[in-house]
């Protein structure tokens, strides 16, 4: 890692810490995460999902592409390799190809249409419990050499804003609230 890369990473982390000290507005905080993660990892699509294990649902809290991934969308979690790795064990998932995208996302054709052929799913965890995920999607192979340790640092910075937003607005616990995502 070059000094330039280290400086860029440090500035991104510093901005995230500063914005969380100043502002509790979820849109501002997630927009700063999006900016910082784009600088460090790159992506075309960035979403943040809250996870409710009791109801087996994911709720979308943020998206940079509201036209294809609207905020508020809910997904029922089914048993899969992805849910076991990411949600239950808290492991980062890297998908490198179109086939990896197809295996994980039901809306894979829409993702392909905007150039998303790889994914970096970063679980946000506290005390061994997955609170949600930050999801970065981009061109094929983009995350093959991603710094997993650095992704975990970003995940820890996301714990507080994710918890705060879920407590304020998320309807994951309401079994009657469900839309197709």
From TrEMBL:
SUPFAM superfamilies the record matches: GAF domain-like (SSF55781)
Descriptive protein name: GAF domain-containing protein
Natural source organism: Paraburkholderia madseniana
């Amino acid at each position: 890692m070059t000094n330039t890369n280290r400086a860029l990473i440090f500035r991104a982390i510093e901005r995230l810490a500063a914005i969380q000290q100043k502002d509790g507005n979820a849109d501002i905080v997630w927009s700063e995460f999006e900016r910082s993660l784009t600088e460090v990892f790159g992506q075309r699509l960035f979403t943040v999902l809250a996870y409710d294990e009791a109801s087996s649902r994911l709720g979308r809290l943020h998206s940079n592409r509201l036209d294809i991934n609207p905020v508020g969308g809910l997904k029922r979690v089914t048993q899969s390799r992805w849910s076991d790795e990411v949600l239950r064990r808290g492991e980062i998932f890297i998908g490198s190809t179109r086939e990896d995208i197809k295996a994980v996302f039901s809306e894979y054709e829409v993702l392909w249409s905007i150039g998303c052929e790889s994914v970096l799913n970063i679980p946000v965890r506290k005390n061994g419990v997955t609170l949600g995920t930050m999801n970065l999607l981009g061109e094929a192979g983009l995350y093959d050499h991603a710094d997993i340790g650095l992704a975990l640092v970003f995940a820890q910075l996301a714990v507080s804003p994710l918890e705060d937003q879920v407590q304020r607005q998320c309807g994951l616990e309401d079994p009657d609230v469900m839309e197709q995502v």
